[in-house]
Amino acid sequence: LISVLIVGAVAAMAILVGFRSVPAVTEYMAVQRIVGALAQEGDDGASVSQIRSSFGRRAGVDNVTSVQGADLFIEKVSGRTLVEVEYERRVPLFANVSLVIDFHATSEGR
N or C: which end of the chain has fewer CB within 10 A? Predict the structure, then answer.
């Protein structure tokens, strides 16, 4: 009986972490998609300031709140635009326990 309770508690914890981390992961996927589109805009001739403002517009549509346009690292490499951003997201689990996730979105592998 005690083993069922322990297994149940571990399963409940895993489910809690999974449910709480889904919004952070979906936001990362939106940031990754935006970064790829911004790199394409840069390849088409957009300036750094235009890329940053475009990120702000796209982030507003996709409800991205963890990253701002000023956080982007933008450079031209061999005639291609490289857009990167690193950020961390804290996901509160319970009481004073949080899950910290480090994200790195890049346009390098497109």
Answer: N
